[in-house]
Amino acid sequence: MLKKNRKATAEPPAPPKPVPVDQKTIIGDQISIEGAIRGKEDLLIEGSVKGSIEVKAHRLTVGVKGQVEAEILAANVTVSGKLAGNINATGKVEITKEADFSGEIKARSISVEDGAYLKAVIEMDREPLNRVSPSGKPVEKTFSEPIKESLILADKGSKGN
Amino acid sequence: MTAFTADRKNTDLKHDPGAVGYSSNALELFMEHFQQRPERKLLDVGPVCQENIRFFASRVKKLYVCDMFIRLDRCIRKGSPVDQIWEKLDYPPQSFDGILLWELADRLDDADVKRLVTLCHSLLRPGGMVMAVVLGDQPGSSGANAFVVGQNFRVYLRPQPHLHLPLRSRQNRDVLSMMAPFIPAKSFICRPGFMEFLFRRE
């Protein structure tokens, strides 16, 4: 008890240690950037960016307030704001329900929440059918043959009406 | 003529385990036809969903998605003229081998359906195919759905509560009439009053 008190009076309080945080750069909603961005850490954009963004081994997030017009190269991309441009991702692209995306997406996998607006051209890294998907489930299973009951409107080659 | 009853087994959808599913013969034929096309470019007008992106992107060379349902919903909410949405389908003529319309036509008035059909005709390559769904008189369900494609062409209807779109019930003859520029190929009755159509461009 005595020791503790003595120590407190003898030494000035130590400066607070920096809290360890994930390496991430944030472009705030009042920031506007035009040009090329390259980085080696994750990037969160809540502001406005026009140009190109390259965070090859990292995650790019376009936040809900973000407005981006850019060519994007990243490991993983999450879009919750407005993004016009092409995404080239070595990993996953996630489009959340708040997103408004137009452009091309090349990625290993993609997830899209219902409600997101997409005008996109999508190319995914192909995995042969019947292989096991990342979720562990086979991509294709065999179910019983569906019952076919058709109403033929017109033979092929002939025009109806 | 009667075809498929609601089937709650075989559901593989994480989001809605109680989703109603049916085997889509039209989609199966559509994809069979599509796979024979050299370019294999497909346009899906929505509602865009993750499962369909995965399903189609693994089967086509390039998957184009343009969610016209959300565009239509935004237009209606703002009170803007609906015909603004057509500028979003600004692809060059003869860009696609297949177009998935799902139930979009049921959400449009006759004038806009005409515009949609003209656009689709222009966007399709000769021999390309359109798939459309008409809900008909579905008691008590006017909400928009995503047609979520599961395994073996089972399709599940997933409600899209964020979409508030009018439903204009159309019958078989209405559909044939509105799709007049195309050659009717096949139609299937999936559930009472629920029809799938395939049309081909000459």
Order of helices and strands of chain B: EHEHEHEHEEEHEE
Q: What global shape of chain A is seen?
A: globular
> Which spans of chain B of ≥5 residues are poorly predicted at pLDDT below 50?
1-15
CATH topology of chain B: Rossmann fold
Estimate percent helicity of chain A.
under 10%
Outline the secondary-structure elements.
The complex is a heterodimer of chains A (161) and B (202).
Chain A: H1 2-10, E1 24-27, E2 32-38, E3 42-45, E4 48-62, E5 67-79, E6 82-84, E7 87-89, E8 92-95, E9 100-107, E10 109-112, E11 117-124, E12 150-151
Parallel strand pairs in A: 1-3, 2-4, 3-4, 4-5, 5-6, 5-7, 5-8, 6-9, 7-9, 8-10, 9-11
Chain B: E1 20-23, H1 25-35, E2 41-44, H2 50-57, E3 62-66, H3 68-78, E4 96-102, H4 110-123, E5 124-134, E6 145-149, E7 154-159, H5 172-178, E8 183-191, E9 194-200
Parallel strand pairs in B: 2-3, 2-4, 4-5
Antiparallel strand pairs in B: 1-7, 5-9, 6-7, 8-9
Describe this structure in words.
The complex is a heterodimer of chains A (161) and B (202). Helix content of chain A is 6%, strand content 47%. Chain A is mainly beta and 161 residues long. Chain A has a domain at 24-124. Chain A starts with a helix and ends in a 10-residue tail after the last strand. Residues 1-8 and 128-161 of chain A have low confidence and may be disordered. Chain B is α/β, with parallel strands linked by helices and 202 residues long. Chain B has one domain: Rossmann fold (3-Layer(aba) Sandwich). Chain B contains five helices and nine strands. Chain B has a six-stranded mixed sheet with strand order 3-2-4-5-9-8, with helices on both faces. A three-stranded antiparallel sheet of chain B has the order 1-7-6. The longest helix of chain B has 14 residues, at 110-123. The model of chain B is unreliable at 1-15 (pLDDT under 50). The A-B interface holds A 97, 110-124, 126-127, 129, 139-143, 146-154, 156-161 and B 1-4, 10, 15, 23-25, 28, 46-50, 53-54, 57-58, 62-67, 70-71, 88, 146, 151-154, 158, 160, 162, 176-177, 180, 183-189, 200, 202. Strand 11 of chain A pairs antiparallel with strand 3 of chain B.
